[in-house]
Sequence to fold (1182 residues):
Amino acid sequence: MTIENDSPAVLRDNAEVAAALGRRYEAGFVTDIETDSLPPGLSEDIVRQLSALKGEPEWMTDWRLKAYRHWLTMPMPNWAKLNIAPIDFQAISYYASPKNKPKSLDEVDPKLLETYDKLGVPLHERAKLAGVAVDAVFDSVSVGTTFRKELAEAGVIFCSMSEAIREHSELVQKYLGSVVPTGDNYFAALNSAVFSDGSFVFIPKGVRCPMELSTYFRINAGHTGQFERTLIIAEEGAYVSYLEGCTAPMRDENQLHAAVVELVALEQAQIKYSTVQNWYPGDEEGRGGIYNFVTKRGDCRGDDSKISWTQVETGSAITWKYPSCVLRGDRSVGEFYSVALTHHRQQADTGTKMIHQGKGTRSKIVSKGISAGRSSNSYRGLVKMEKGAEGARNYTQCDSLLIGKKCGAHTFPYMEVKNPTAIVEHEATTSKISDDQLFYCRSRGIGEEDAVSMIVDGFCKQVFRELPMEFAVEAKKLLEISLEGAVG
Amino acid sequence: MLKIENLHARVEGKDILKGLTLTVKPGEVHAIMGPNGAGKSTLGNVLSGREGYEVTAGSVLFEGRDLLALEPEERAAAGLFLAFQYPVEIPGVNNTYFLRAALNAQRKQRGQGELDSMQFLKLVREKLKIMQISDELLHRAVNEGFSGGEKKRNEIFQMAVLEPKLAILDETDSGLDIDALKQVAQGVNALRSPDRAFLVITHYQRLLDYIEPDFVHVLADGRIVESGDKSLALKLEEHGYAWVAERDPALANEARA
Amino acid sequence: MNRSPAPMPFIDALREAGDLRLPGSGLAWLDAARSENLEAFMAAGLPDTRAEAWKYTALRALGQRRFALGDADAATHPVDPHALALPGIDGPRLVFVNGVFRADLSKLEALPPGLSLQPLSRVLANDPEPLRFALSRQYREAGDAFARLNAALAGDGMVLRVAPGVRVGKPIHLCFAGAPAQGDVAWHLRNVIELGEGAELDLVEHHLATAQHKHLSTLVSEIVARDGAKLQHTLLQNVAEECTLIRRGSVRLGAKAQVMLHVLELGGALVRHDLHAELHGDEARFDTRGVFVLRGRQHVDTQLSIHHQALNTASESIWRGVADERARGVFRGAIVVAQGADGSDASLNNKNLLLSPLAEIDTKPELEIYADEVKAAHGATVGQLDERALFYLRSRGLPQAEARALLTAAFCRAVFSALPNETLRDHFSSALLAHLP
Fold:
């Protein structure tokens, strides 16, 4: 092969990338707080202990054990595009909780409140985010939920999963695992066995949730995994917009985050689920960082329902997630808007599945991948038109942007069509920030880094538009920080 | 203001500029004319600092500073503006947002305070009036889906907002019909002032009917081979570029070889 | 979890066949390569749908069938040479019937200088050494089962060489015919094609049947186009409705080499077509135009993969698929741009028509990009005929079926507009129309 690897541009890129100290990870601090945790290791006994610690009813313990036994029979998946160091599941602690469990937000350890303040998510009464109710999950447990009273008046249940299992057992029993069965995949099975907490949302029939709901996930303790479980149910005609944010301290080890999110939309219900994922991505050499293996699935169970996923993924050493929609109800709608940015040695394999079963179902997929450094960024998606999907439609657009010569950007869309009235359309492009665009900006006085983030922001516009305002601003900032040192 | 001396430049290993010398004073309008391949666009690109253009000899002073040592954005902040022959599209980046970012970046470099969005909007309104541009253009992404004429007018509009000391118009007339050409020229003329200079690069004389130059230079084979006043442009129009070659024995020899 | 493999009559038949006498048997290196590949194939069996490359094509039914190895009467089946002819093609011709070279049907006299064209069996008998490399390849991927089987059992095929700088004027006609025989027969063929530097060749590959049969054939074709070579390769696949055809073509392009491939797939009950191109030299160009039109219970799986490995290489692929009745069309189109292959320009466009509630289309365009100075794009759609156009034609008096056929043919035909041989292009059109239900 006659390839000039050492062109001046490449050398310059390397030198300058090396010179830059890599990204700032602003959420990388550790909170010094006393923690109760289970010893590392996984066994039926640990599952039982975990369930007992949380005071769960028997059916829940049995449910977990069933999942655990199933998990034991499953092989660890082997993904083509990801390089994963073997995970020692016996070295992980499956439960870590701040020692003094508060009864209400007023009793929360000040150190914890301070942590969330620092992350820009104030929980105490005086500084609560206007119009956004927050459930804060610290390591394995929820440490507090804001605006409970206001929500209760509207009939909305928004609480930690642990509380829901105790207080709303019937609802949980009815819906938990109904979208993502315990044996769905390796990590979903593991999650079902050991999930510690998460958020539960129930919007009753005809209610439009009066404010944005939000969960803020924080991994703090070392050698732990976070396995949260989120369940959102929107009854007939209900509407909810839900946001989740995630951060973790900088640590040399890889930590596992294996969440399961289940959404259920009944007739004419709408669920909008937004994620800004900023788990610690590891350093420039790929040391440390979160393994983010997440199963997210929405079930448009009723006619005319709608589920919309929006995600901005900048963190994690490895991301593996495919927020999906099962479009069962007639005329139901699924949407997926995604920005995934990888830098240094990050690997992201993300995308969506749109399973069209009902008549006249529609789905739209907009995916923007940005790869820099030595990272690898793949879109993997499935659009399936089943026999009953009369007149169903899908439109997919996947664009990739490469920054630098050592990264990879890949697109793997699967289209399976069994209905002759369905229409599926897919388009994808790969490009880099053109020298012309950069020069144009610079000749107008805009510095190179600013020009790059401006162009990247423009590239992501279609997705940012789907985020609630505050999140859009945060997402843009995150992108800028994540790209620091990416351009020479 | 601008002093180019014996400038030599090459692109992809090929010598394009071969000893160009030119001096521009504040308030002056210089037209650079020449046949295709003479090095006209190379001149604009070298002055504004595009990558891939290697200066092999000579110097360029801009208000006494070594222009060639500056990064493109520093040149912009120093007061240099290039109106591109082919303005690039930047999808998703709002035109107004872009322009405000540019203006504030330049002001910051110059140690001036940044304009907030209200102040900026006021400025834009004023300039829009001069340029007769509809504000609909402002809400679109930079150059995206613009017609040829819209792109060129947008360039002149940016110039109006950024208020450079020296503006280089690189074949701004190319691809314009006569009405669009007039509009662009009108915008340029509105921006003429005693402290602002223009370098108008063009292949055709017709632009100079609307933007009247103080000096006309003929660029051929990387050098200025003929300078004069406005009448030189008319002579060129009449006789074509072959006439220049005939008058310059060195060029004629090269052409024969 | 290891499960003991299900009994596979397909493999049993091979095992029972015992020692085989193939052309070239007795050559130590060839015997070794063949037995190694056969063992590898038998050990792994046929791939199942868990192998990514076979995700949409199940081979369970094939695994339950038995095929006799070779047809003893292949050399003597009466075949009308006119049935083999293609309009507009009158150059040298090489004909195989049920996998056996037929000198009586071929035209190999008066070959132009610089062109060497021989059946593989003859080369193996006379001068096998130059083929040593090509015939002792190892196949290691899980999806490579049939390449192994072919490497183990291929005894004939075409060996074609064009000397550097030679432009072969007339198209070469390569004809593979299937004919009814005693029971179901399997045969395996291999082509080795090399275009020297700056050589030019027009190759027409034609797969057809003299009458219905249920045979299995595999063909592995390896093409090398050296620097500056130009190949115009046209493939018309119109095999028997109930037969199985597994074809694998790979082409390697040197600097500034250009290959244009046209494919029309019409026949076969189960057809698998792997097309692999490596753009190995700077400024190489590889273009493909393909159409499959399926009806009945046909299952046609096309796997296209194009690897850009050098500077300023280009590829453009345009494919159309039609599935009617109970047919299933599978398409994968992968573009890979290697690190450092700057200036690559790659595009792939795949559009499909799904015409019946029992038909299915599965398509998977892929981009795998490791270089940043590239232009790469793909698009894929699955849909139906334009209702308005259909209505327009019917309102002008065309019966529904005819209007549908007309629009379907139009959907496909545009793909062949770059086919230089006009007569052949017309023949493609009529073959396509004839195949529509």
